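During the reporting period the student researcher (J.K.) took over the structure-prediction task from the postdoctoral fellow and processed the backlog of single-chain submissions. One of the processed entries is reproduced below for the supervisory committee.
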Amino acid sequence: MPIEESIRHLGPWFHNLHLPGGVQTAPEHFLGDFPNLKWKQLEPHLPKNLAGWKVLDVGCNAGFYSFELAKRGAQVLGIDSDEHYLRQARWIAQEFHPSNPPTFWQMQVQELARLDENFDLILFMGVFYHLRYPTLALDTIAAKTRKLMVFQTLTMNGDQVVSAKPDYPIMEREIFDEPGWPKMAFIEGKFSNDETNWWVPNHSAVLSMLRSTGFEQIDRVAHEIYLCRPPEGGIRRNRTWDEAEWTAATGAYPSPQPSDGGLAS
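J.K. obtained the following structure tokens:
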């Protein structure tokens, strides 16, 4: 089947991939040459040689980032919840990437908690704000990160950051109205005609959430793109972080059987 016909058969496409002969999968993308424009912002900040690295691409879609990282020698796993996009990624891998092709699985981000494997590099781009339970996913991904995590999310306007005190009395609530207080807008309906857009954090909230989940070195390398490095020895949970809550929510480990409370017959 000709390339153009296969592209039409597998459409619609959200990733505009450049294929041999000048063919593109989504040349009329409403965001332009997407996600290549994002990749150009990110790629100078990643190692050129990723040989020996295990990489996870969360929400891989048609695999643009997966293929770019595989070209650098990484062993790449791309996951997505949508089989439509995974069919596109697998077709690209089969037809155009015979050398070191990524692997693609249909998988929810929360299922990573039950995957007995960690990754040197994790891309968590364009997913956070689509999740109903976003910080649960962020904690799960942090626990799987050995060297580097790339975080990208839709954000609110403004770069202000409040230098918060360690604690506030219960009636001192005006601090929450400060422009740089960490906060997220909740979307009950749709945003950009997409009902899966749930949350839009501000820059301050992104920094706070990344710190609270255990990352120590956080660098914003481009608009809405953050490079996050765990401390030496891996992520160490904040003392207020509830391991039992995360375990119960993700099913990472077998949950204890609830007592019958004296109701058993």
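The committee noted the following: Confidence is low (pLDDT under 50) at residues 255-265.
J.K. will present the remaining backlog at the next meeting.
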